[in-house]
Amino acid sequence: MAYYKRNLPHIQFKGGEYFVTFRLFGSLPVHIVQELKSYRKQFEKDLRKDADDKLRSKIERQIFAKYESHLDQNLSGPHWLKLPDIARVVENSIHFRNYKIYDLYAYCVMSNHVHIVFRHIDDEKIDCVGKSIKENMKSEKFPVTHILGNLKKFTARKCNQILNRKGSFWQAENFDRLIRDVSELENSILYTLNNPVNAKLISDWRQWSYTYCKAEFLDSVSLIMPSDHHFIHHIHWLAWFKRSGSATRSK
Questions:
Q1: In this structure, are residues 56 and 47 in contact, taking their beta carbons and an 8 Å threshold?
Q2: Element at 13 (helix H, strand E)
Q3: Residue 84: exposed, middle, or buried by beta-carbon count in 10 A (0-12, 13-18, 19+)?
Q4: Binning pLDDT at 50, 70 and 90, where does residue 219 land?
Q5: Which one of 136, 149, 244, 250 has the fewest CB atoms closer than 10 angstroms to its CB?
Q6: Coil, strand, or helix at residue 92?
Q7: What separation in angstroms does the CA of 239 have from each of 80, 91, 223?
Q8: What is the pLDDT of residue 137?
Q9: How far is it, in rounded angstroms, from Cα 71 to Cα 77?
Q10: Three-class SS state of 234
Q11: pLDDT tens-digit readout, 25-53
Q12: What's the rounded Cα separation, in Å, for the pair 199 and 231?
């Protein structure tokens, strides 16, 4: 397992399952970014060095809840991902890497950010296309960082060509969370697919054009009927997630 820290902490190891979020450059106002940094610093200052993983995980969820809330509510900044041609570039690039460097579970492309849930493939018998992608990564020590770096570099170039612009397209920092158990995996997939619903853009996740869920998870997380017990469990989990956040986790 590897750990490093930039603005956000990153815990990564080969073959792990991850929930990741990345956003457009400038999608959050500077004062909001500073507020989130100060919020994190205060938590780290108050947190004991011997705090267990469960407590640290809870704090990460609280910080992410604030981060996500600002992204969903922000009306300023770029929203290029709502353009069909731009969203398709991102979707196609995500799918291109499926079964090459990760096993794709779910994703959602919002207007200013993207959520993906996947399992990193740690396999020496990777095909030639996947191998060429891996060879372009400087290190395997932080697999998620390099997967997203490669993905974002390619899509930034293509999207800027479509927009006839130059400059940064994606924010450099990513949010990546190591998924630790089946319950957390289920919640991560549900959260990803229901992001447009929670943002009050649609009433059912299946109405969103830029979303995907691997077939085997449709039954396991019981997303077919909104009335089922798993969906109700998700609503309760999401309410807790938001309460926790307001009260005090790269062709």
A1: yes
A2: none
A3: exposed
A4: confident
A5: 136
A6: helix
A7: 29, 29, 18
A8: 45
A9: 10
A10: helix
A11: 988 877 777 777 776 677 666 666 656 66
A12: 17
User: What predicted TM-score, i.e. pTM, was given to this entire model?
Assistant: 0.73
Are the beta carbons of 90 and 109 closer than 8 angstroms?
Answer: yes
Contact (Cβ atoms closer than 8 angstroms) between residue 59 and residue 183: no
Residue pLDDT, tens place only, 68-96: 777 777 777 899 999 999 999 999 999 99
Instruction: Let me know if 52 is exposed, middle or buried by CB neighbors in 10 A (0-12, 13-18, 19+).
Output: exposed
Count of positions (residues) in the chain = 251
Please classify residue 58 by burial: count the beta carbons closer than 10 Å to its beta carbon, then call 0-12 exposed, 13-18 middle and 19+ buried. middle
The DSSP secondary structure of 29-75, one letter per residue, reads: -HHHHHHHHHHHHHHHHHS-TT--HHHHHHHHHHHHHHHHHHHHH--
Q: How far apart are CA 241 and CA 145, in angstroms?
A: 25
Residue 86, amino acid? I
For tokens 């500073």, the residue is 34
